[in-house]
Design a protein that fits this description.
Number of helices: 8
Number of strands: 11
CATH topology of the largest domain: Rossmann fold
Largest sheet: 6 strands, mixed
Order of helices and strands: EHEEHEHEHEHHEEHEEEH
Low-confidence stretches: 1-12, 332-342
Mean pLDDT: 81
Shape: elongated
CATH class of the largest domain: Alpha Beta
CATH architecture of the largest domain: 3-Layer(aba) Sandwich
Bound molecules: guanosine-5'-triphosphate
Radius of gyration: 22 Å
Length: about 350
């Protein structure tokens, strides 16, 4: 394998390694989630023949590495130990519409190896392409896959290893939900972020609030109330609408204005959708209860929301700068790239 495909172990990026048998859906997931490809267009994707790696910067700098199913990365020419040592999460994709027993054997072999060289690795299994299965069959498949994986790990003496399972499809929001949870585990500041979002919910009439990565529509944090997939969908679509509208605005020189993006929309049930651009490609999107018909009352409510969201943004900036500082001091010999606030 060429050296360029290896994640740098000194890299401050959190690396996600995407693995699984051929045609499982790995490239499709990357293209749909991170490159806005329409799910149906993935039908024509060619099988990947070489490992690929790409960078995404969000609150943290992420890299996503895909190892094609047709490679045997345990051959001596691949430095598998080095790969696994430097990844934060191993995401293994299983095609649930296909015979999956081989995939499960392959998965346990990879877990055994990965866990040995990196006991801190998060192991995440996507039971993928569930769009083709009935509701009952999905639950059966999940139960069967979890049971068999558990048995295989027990046989290998690895019963303590934590493995998370997700039912996913690129044709609905499930892949975004799964990937959001996977990325969240790699963000060390997550508990503080969740606390800050809970604080917003407690003090304002917010039903749900997300901190979104605008490009991928993954949420890097949310308050602690359960995520309802419809609310997620409405909030994610609101980002697209806001950005489309924002692109229409130009200044007197015909150039795009560089102001902070902010948008509020009133839904037919009187609730408000509220979006504010944060730092590093993030946006805060909240669903706010609003029982007041009176527009003056609504204005004063929004003033309080704006004030609190400003404080949140400042805290977020502080948090990011501190985390950069910690990384720098941990990594004195490493010349860090200078990140820029968006
Ligand atoms: N029904 C369905 N098909 C999917 C889904 N995700 C991917 N596919 C299809 O699965 C096929 C294989 O997808 P790829 O993304 O090329 O698979 P891969 O794992 O990258 O395969 P290799 O490159 O050979 O390792 C494509 O025809 C996709 O359209 C899904 O969620 N549901």
């Amino acid at each position: 394998m060429e050296a360029t495909y290896l994640p740098n172990p000194n890299d401050s990026n959190a690396t996600i390694l995407l693995m699984g048998l051929r045609r499982g859906g790995k490239s499709s997931i990357c293209k749909v989630v991170f490159h806005d490809m329409q799910p149906l267009d993935t039908l024509y994707l060619e099988s990947t023949s070489k490992p690929t790696s790409e960078q995404f910067s969000s609150l943290i700098d992420l890299s996503l590495m895909e190892i094609p199913g047709q490679l045997n990365y345990f051959e001596p020419e691949y430095d598998s130990a080095r790969i696994f040592q430097s990844v934060g999460a191993l995401v293994y994709v299983i095609d649930s519409q296909d015979e999956y027993l081989n995939a499960l054997t392959n998965l346990s072999m990879i877990i055994e190896f990965a866990y040995k060289v990196n006991p801190k690795i998060h192991i995440e299994v996507l039971i993928h392409k569930i769009d083709g299965l009935t509701e009952d069959y999905r639950i059966d498949a999940q139960r069967d896959i979890m049971q068999r994986t558990g048995d295989e790990l027990l046989d290998l003496g690895l019963e303590g290893v934590q493995v998370s399972f997700y039912l996913t499809s690129i044709f609905d929001q499930s892949i975004y939900e799964a990937f959001s949870k996977i990325v969240q585990k790699l963000i060390p500041e997550l508990p503080s972020l969740e606390n800050m979002l809970d604080n917003l919910v407690q003090h304002l009439s917010i039903d749900k609030v997300f901190l979104f990565d605008v490009n991928s529509k993954l949420y890097v944090a949310t308050d602690s109330s359960p995520v309802d997939i419809q609310t997620y969908e409405v909030c994610a679509e609101f980002i697209d609408i806001t950005i489309d509208l924002d692109e229409l605005y130009v200044d007197e020189n015909g150039e795009q204005t560089n102001k902070e993006i902010k948008s509020i929309s009133r839904l037919s049930n009187h609730s408000l959708l509220y979006l504010r651009q944060m730092i590093r490609g993030l946006a805060l999107v909240a669903l706010i209860r609003n029982d007041d018909e009176n527009l003056n009352d609504m204005d004063s409510m929004l003033t309080v929301v704006n004030y609190n969201v400003n404080l949140f943004k400042q805290a977020l900036m502080q948090m990011w700068q501190n985390s950069k500082f910690v990384k720098k001091t941990n990594d004195v010999n490493e010349s860090l790239s200078v990140d820029r606030l968006h």
